[in-house]
């Protein structure tokens, strides 16, 4: 079932053959999203392990029993949910994501984007799971290579070479150079890239400045730098606890398209950004 290293609430975790080993204490002590999804009011090694074990048991994540038929969309404005709706509505052709057991993958079906990304956290490294690879391939996806390489720049290039011209790419916020390379590559290849920066907790202000110039959408997570640097430059903000910032017109369009797909009521108003609810922030901000 492979060996995988991930980050959860800024805790380092190893999952090997379906067994979870939490290697370090979570630096984030409370995350409002994890509280909402999993009931974790205070984070510690126990909550990290418990949630991951439930993902293994209920969804087959990190194992050969990976579920590719997830039907819910648990996060209102998560990256996979936005991409899924945009692909369904013809705004995007494909998505470059990361999945345990395969590494970087080009996904061409909206439901598969959601299945892969709905409960995924930051993958640091992963090793092959043949059943996951076969499950993705038979659903029209393209795997970057057989070594489980995680390289979103090469993934974007592979997607465009395969004939997809409007491609979403999720990048780790601590690697703004990936967003910059993808933006430049999109110009050269005459393709459209929707660049989405995720897992931003712990980035510094210099990294945030670079993301503000190269990304379409940035998730604030528990990042002080994103709130301080990116928030004031954003064109749109969704949420006041864990804000999602649109930096471009395309980013705004993708966020609004997600809102159109939801039955919920919304309040839309002009505001100076960022607008934060102090009681609903993750703690601490890093």
Brief write-up:
The protein is an alpha+beta fold and 286 residues long. 35% of the residues lie in helices and 20% in strands. The radius of gyration is 18 Å and the shape is globular.
Structure description:
This protein is of the alpha+beta class and 286 residues long. The protein has 2 domains: 1-65, no CATH class; 75-265, no CATH class. Helix content is 35%, strand content 20%. It has helices spanning 32-38, 45-59, 79-88, 110-117, 130-137, 152-161, 176-189, 205-214, 224-230, 249-260, and strands spanning 3-8, 11-16, 19-22, 94-99, 103-107, 122-125, 142-143, 166-172, 192-198, 217-219, 236-238, 244-246. The model has no long low-confidence stretch (mean pLDDT 96).
H-E order: EEEHHHEEHEHEHEHEHEHEEH
Cα distance, first to last residue?
Answer: 33 Å
Report mean pLDDT, rounded to a whole number: 96
Low-confidence stretches: none
Radius of gyration: 18 Å
Using the alpha-carbon principal axes, give the shape.
globular
Output the number of helix runs. 10
Total domain modules: 2
Largest sheet: 8 strands, mixed
Q: What is the percent of helical residues?
A: 25-40%
Number of strands: 12
Strand content: 15-25%
Decide which structural class fits the backbone.
alpha+beta
- For the biggest β-sheet, the strand order reads 7-5-4-8-9-10-12-11
Which features would summarize this protein structure in a list?
four-stranded antiparallel β-sheet, alpha+beta, 20% strand, 2 domains, 35% helix, 286 residues
């Amino acid at each position: 079932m492979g060996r995988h290293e991930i980050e959860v609430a800024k805790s380092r975790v190893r999952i090997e053959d379906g067994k979870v080993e939490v290697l370090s204490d979570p630096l984030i002590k409370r995350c409002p999203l994890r509280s909402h999804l999993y009931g974790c009011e205070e984070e510690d090694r126990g909550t990290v392990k418990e949630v991951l074990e439930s993902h293994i048991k209920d969804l087959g994540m990190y194992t050969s029993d990976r579920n590719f038929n997830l039907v819910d969309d648990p996060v209102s404005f998560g990256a996979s949910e936005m991409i899924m709706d945009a692909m369904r509505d013809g705004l995007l052709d494909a998505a470059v994501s990361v999945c345990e057991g395969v590494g970087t993958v080009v996904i061409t079906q909206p439901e598969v984007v959601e299945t892969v990304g709905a409960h995924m956290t930051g993958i640091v490294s992963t090793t092959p799971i043949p059943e996951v690879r076969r499950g993705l391939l038979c659903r029209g996806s393209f795997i970057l290579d057989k070594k489980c390489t995680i390289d979103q720049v090469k993934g974007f290039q592979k997607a465009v070479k395969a004939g997809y011209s409007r491609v979403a790419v999720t990048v780790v916020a601590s690697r703004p150079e990936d967003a910059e390379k993808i933006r430049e590559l999109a110009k050269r290849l005459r393709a459209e890239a929707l660049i989405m920066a995720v897992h931003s907790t712990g980035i510094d202000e210099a990294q945030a400045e670079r993301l503000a110039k190269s990304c379409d959408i940035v998730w604030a997570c528990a990042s002080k730098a994103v709130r301080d640097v990116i928030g004031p430059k954003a064109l749109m903000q969704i949420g006041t606890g864990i804000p999602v910032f649109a930096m471009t017109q395309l980013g705004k369009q993708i966020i609004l398209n997600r809102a159109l797909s939801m039955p919920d009521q919304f309040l839309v108003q002009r505001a100076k950004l960022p607008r934060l609810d102090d009681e609903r922030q993750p703690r601490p901000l890093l």
